[in-house]
């Protein structure tokens, strides 16, 4: 079957995956056939046996317990990292994207088995909270699976399309609540005039059903097991017990499903070896109340993300028409009750939460043009038509256009083209082609169906000609306005201020491009490989650069430049990101008249468990220091923030994840993410302690600026000072600490700019240097410079005096600050 649009959509999930296709205006989930049973979902698990045979789906999931070294699941969480899964029996290894590719191949095979069609292109969904390296890995997985085209679609957008494709309504807001096996997304969708627009979104790539399972295992099951059996160092972080914990988790998964229908269940018997040939069998009773006690904090965490997403757009619960439920865990009544109570918004699960994302992906796929026909030479009498139209839209009389070309015809005067609806027999009437073959037509479309229009091209004699393609389609339905950028992006700057220059704000539509001017901080000598200018690209929404994720770095090394590059040299940086989320960073250096460019390689390394442990211990120490300072400080803001951290489960969550990191790479990645969250919370408390002193210092320095501006400032400098005054008042009123730090820098720069221009300043500085001579490191050079300085003053040579003073400054001892270097070692400054 030849398709002009992609039509197939895949939900590539952490726990389960599915593929759907749009037939007309309705979606169909393609069922798989495994072991004689049919299912709309395929478990996201892969196994490889000792002969190298690959199994995908339920059979592979069953092997997770019995042969844990030959079967893996939940690899979606590791997408885009350098983690490698080892299949011990076969000696093979696979990256996370390789395993995801096997899932995609399996889904593709299901379609071919059911329908005989070989799917050449598909839309693949990703969580809205996915970072760029994870999106890039998903795209590569689709390529490995053999798809020629694989546009990515955010999962909440897909879910909204499944609900809103054929909906006819005025403006309304929906909250998509996507709680999957391993990731969580919350997105506000505005549906208006047949267009779906993402208003705001948030999420957590380490929040899902798997985390509920582990909470039940560690908080309920393991303590009971240890009461009954004496097991040495029985922890999730001990590789010796990996298989035992895998069996416990699988038993909890089954029990969790049972408890969605009953008040209590017996945990499926777990049998595992404890050493010396001895096995133990363990089972226990689990109640719905116990399950909820472990799971509810995770549900409430997801609800808090929803509330934050709403608050950021100043939307209350009353503004949201409904909450669209997505993900297997939301099928449980207890889950829905807890969520409804927390959010206070009506829940809608009228479309199966397990397949709603795949269905919405298929709807979006119908809006994506695809032409897989190979480019071949046309024979005499055959014509190619390059069609330009939107396959989906809300207009019942859409425009379509195109250009006809052929192997021999150069002038299409007197050629005609007519479009005919194959179902209703509506005709456009004969449309005269322009001499260059261009045409435009207005279509008439019927709602509730896919309109297929046959293309009838005739030569001047009225003879019908063969065309490729020979038809076009149009469907009346909702469309996605544009896909937003998941996280802000920009450049990490050098210096002590750990500054982040955001070039792209979260939520902007792709593609994006921006150019910004910077200056180098350090000199780069030609031919020196050790000299390097780093331009770090970071992703995230935190003010401090090192609290965001490093995406990639463009490096300009001394060995690659034709001449020395002094400090302060101008660098023009251009950052681009296209619809496929491919990032390019370009740096033009005017002094060299040369461009340097790289495509950012989006790969993240697995966290080092030992490094994580040390960082966690350091943060705990910092937390205690901030807490002690807060106890003696005036005001309650810092103390309240400290209490919030202690009352939350964040510290315990980091502790558990770091503890399990050695044996579980997922736990290590989650620990790294939660550790950043803890650092930000401690930063917030430390900032609250710093705030009063920073306000006082800024006001004092500004008073000094006003004084020097009044005496010696130019009109432009006076205007700048007046502008700073208003900005400082606004920032203090809004209590924005990082912005106030930057304004203080601007105050000081303007002060010294005026001061440095005054001869009296340099005379005063020289006199101070005379008094500091005994402390200078080179007394002979100091004496010589001081003599030269006195001569400059006598001759009123203030330019020379300025140079002398700067050299004398270099001779004074500098304080050595014992503090860890922060940031990403950027070589740029504003």
Structure overview:
The strands form 10 sheets. Strands 23, 24, 25, 26, 27, 28, 29, 30 and 31 form a 9-stranded mixed sheet that branches. The protein is globular. Helices cover 38% and strands 25% of the residues. The relative contact order is 0.08. The chain has 830 residues and is of the alpha+beta class. About 1% of the residues have low confidence.
Q: Number of helical segments?
A: 18
Secondary structure class reads alpha+beta
Number of strands: 41
Radius of gyration: 32 Å
Average pLDDT, rounded to a whole number, is 89
Low-confidence stretches: 815-824
Largest sheet: 9 strands, mixed
The end-to-end distance, rounded to whole angstroms, is 56 Å
Task: Please state roughly what percent of the residues sit in beta strands, choosing from under 5%, 5-15%, 15-25%, 25-35%, 35-45% or over 45%.
Answer: 25-35%
In one word, what is the shape?
globular
The helicity comes to 25-40%
What key attributes describe this structure?
830 residues, nine-stranded mixed sheet, 38% helix, 25% strand, globular
Brief summary of the model shown:
This protein is 38% helix and 25% strand. With 830 residues, it is α+β, with helices and mostly antiparallel strands. Strands 23, 24, 25, 26, 27, 28, 29, 30 and 31 form a nine-stranded mixed sheet that branches. Strands 1, 2, 3, 6, 12 and 13 form a six-stranded mixed sheet that branches.
What is the secondary structure topology, with strand pairs?
Elements: E1 8-12, E2 16-23, E3 26-29, E4 32-34, E5 37-39, E6 42-43, E7 45-48, E8 54-56, H1 58-66, E9 71-73, E10 85-87, E11 92-94, H2 96-115, E12 123-126, H3 132-144, E13 152-154, H4 155-164, E14 172-179, E15 184-192, E16 195-204, H5 209-228, H6 242-258, E17 264-266, E18 270-275, E19 278-282, E20 285-287, H7 288-312, E21 322-326, H8 333-343, E22 347-348, H9 356-365, E23 382-388, E24 392-393, E25 399-405, E26 416-421, E27 431-432, E28 438-442, E29 450-458, E30 464-468, E31 471-476, E32 479-480, E33 489-492, E34 500-504, E35 512-520, E36 532-539, E37 549-557, E38 570-577, E39 583-589, E40 594-599, H10 609-632, H11 637-647, H12 650-660, H13 665-712, H14 715-734, H15 737-756, H16 759-771, H17 779-794, H18 798-811, E41 828-829
Parallel strand pairs: 1-12, 12-13, 14-21, 16-32, 21-22, 23-30, 24-31
Antiparallel strand pairs: 1-2, 2-3, 2-6, 4-5, 7-8, 7-9, 10-11, 14-15, 15-16, 17-20, 18-19, 23-25, 25-28, 26-27, 26-29, 29-30, 29-31, 33-34, 33-36, 35-38, 35-41, 36-37, 38-39, 39-40
């Amino acid at each position: 079957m030849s398709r002009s649009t992609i039509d197939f959509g895949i939900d590539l999930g952490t726990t389960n995956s599915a593929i759907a296709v749009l037939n007309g205006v309705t979606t169909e989930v393609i069922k798989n056939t495994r072991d004689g049973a049919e299912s709309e979902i395929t478990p996201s698990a892969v196994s490889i046996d000792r002969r190298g045979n690959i199994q995908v789906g339920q059979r592979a999931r069953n092997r997770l317990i019995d042969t844990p070294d030959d079967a893996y699941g939940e690899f979606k969480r590791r997408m885009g990292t350098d983690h490698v899964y080892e299949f011990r029996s076969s000696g093979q290894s696979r990256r996370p994207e390789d395993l995801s590719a096997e899932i995609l191949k399996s889904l593709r095979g299901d379609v071919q088995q059911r329908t005989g069609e070989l799917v050449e292109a598909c839309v693949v969904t990703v969580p809205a909270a996915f970072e760029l390296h994870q999106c890039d890995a998903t795209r590569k997985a689709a390529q490995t699976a053999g798809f020629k085209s694989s546009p990515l679609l955010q999962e909440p957008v897909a879910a909204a399309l499944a609900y809103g494709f054929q909906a006819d309504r005025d403006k309304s807001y929906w909250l998509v609540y996507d709680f999957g096996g391993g990731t969580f997304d919350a997105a506000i969708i505005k549906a208006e005039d047949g267009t779906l627009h993402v208003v705001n979104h948030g999420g957590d790539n380490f929040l899902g059903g798997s985390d509920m399972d582990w909470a039940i295992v560690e908080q309920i099951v393991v303590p009971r097991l240890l009461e009954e059996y004496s097991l040495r160092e029985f922890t999730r972080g001990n590789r010796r017990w990996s298989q035992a914990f895998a069996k416990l988790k699988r038993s909890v998964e089954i029990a969790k499903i049972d408890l969605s229908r009953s008040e209590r269940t017996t945990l499926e018997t777990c049998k595992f070896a404890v050493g010396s040939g001895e096995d133990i069998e363990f089972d226990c009773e689990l109640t719905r109340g116990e399950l909820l006690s472990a799971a509810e904090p995770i549900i409430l965490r997801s609800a808090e993300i929803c509330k934050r997403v709403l608050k950021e757009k100043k939307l209350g619960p009353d503004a949201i028409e409904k909450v669209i439920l997505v993900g297997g865990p939301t099928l449980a009544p207890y889950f829905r009750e807890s969520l409804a109570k927390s959010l206070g918004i009506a829940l809608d699960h009228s479309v199966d939460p397990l397949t709603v994302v795949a269905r919405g992906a298929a709807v979006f796929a119908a809006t994506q043009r695809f032409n897989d026909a190979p480019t071949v030479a046309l024979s005499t009498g055959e014509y190619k038509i390059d069609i330009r139209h939107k396959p989906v839209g809300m207009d019942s009389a859409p425009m379509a256009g195109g250009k006809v070309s052929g192997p021999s015809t150069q002038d299409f005067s007197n050629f005609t083209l007519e479009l005919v609806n194959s179902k209703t027999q509506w005709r456009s009437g004969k449309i005269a082609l322009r001499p260059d073959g261009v045409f435009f037509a207005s279509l008439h479309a019927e709602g509730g169906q896919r309109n297929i229009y046959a293309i009838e091209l005739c030569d001047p004699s009225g003879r019908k000609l063969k065309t490729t393609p020979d038809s076009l389609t149009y469907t009346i339905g909702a469309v996605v306005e544009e896909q937003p950028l998941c996280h802000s992006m920009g450049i990490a700057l050098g210096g002590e201020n750990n500054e982040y220059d955001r070039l792209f704000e979260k939520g902007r539509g792709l593609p994006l491009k921006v150019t910004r001017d910077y200056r180098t901080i350090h000199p780069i000598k030609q031919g020196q490989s050790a000299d390097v200018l780093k331009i770090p690209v970071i992703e995230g929404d935190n003010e401090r650069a090192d609290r965001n994720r490093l995406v990639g770095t463009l490096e300009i090394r001394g060995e690659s430049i034709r001449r020395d590059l002094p400090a302060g040299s101008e660098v023009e940086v251009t950052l681009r990101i296209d619809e496929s989320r491919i990032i390019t960073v370009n740096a033009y250096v005017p002094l060299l008249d040369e461009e340097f460019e790289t495509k950012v390689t989006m790969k993240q390394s697995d966290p080092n468990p030992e490094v994580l442990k040390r960082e966690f211990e350091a943060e705990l120490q910092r937390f205690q220091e901030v807490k002690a300072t807060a106890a003696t400080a005036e005001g309650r803001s810092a103390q309240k923030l400290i209490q919030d951290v202690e009352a939350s489960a964040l510290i315990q969550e980091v502790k558990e994840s770091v503890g399990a990191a050695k044996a579980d790479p997922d736990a290590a990645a989650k620990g790294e993410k939660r550790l950043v969250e803890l650092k930000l919370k401690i930063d917030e408390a430390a900032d609250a302690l710093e705030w009063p002193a920073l306000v006082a210092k800024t006001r004092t320095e500004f008073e000094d600026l006003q004084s020097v501006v009044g005496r010696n400032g130019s009109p432009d400098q006076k205007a700048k000072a007046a502008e700073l005054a208003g900005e400082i008042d606004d920032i203090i009123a809004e209590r924005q600490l990082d912005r106030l730090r930057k304004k203080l820098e601007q105050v000081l720069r303007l002060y010294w700019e005026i001061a440095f221009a005054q001869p009296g300043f340099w005379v005063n500085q020289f006199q101070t240097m005379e008094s500091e001579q005994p402390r200078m490191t080179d007394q002979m050079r100091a004496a010589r410079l001081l003599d030269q300085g006195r001569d400059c003053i006598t001759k009123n040579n203030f330019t020379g005096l300025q140079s002398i003073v700067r050299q004398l400054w270099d001779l004074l001892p500098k304080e050595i600050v014992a503090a860890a270097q922060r940031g990403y070692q950027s070589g740029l400054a504003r």
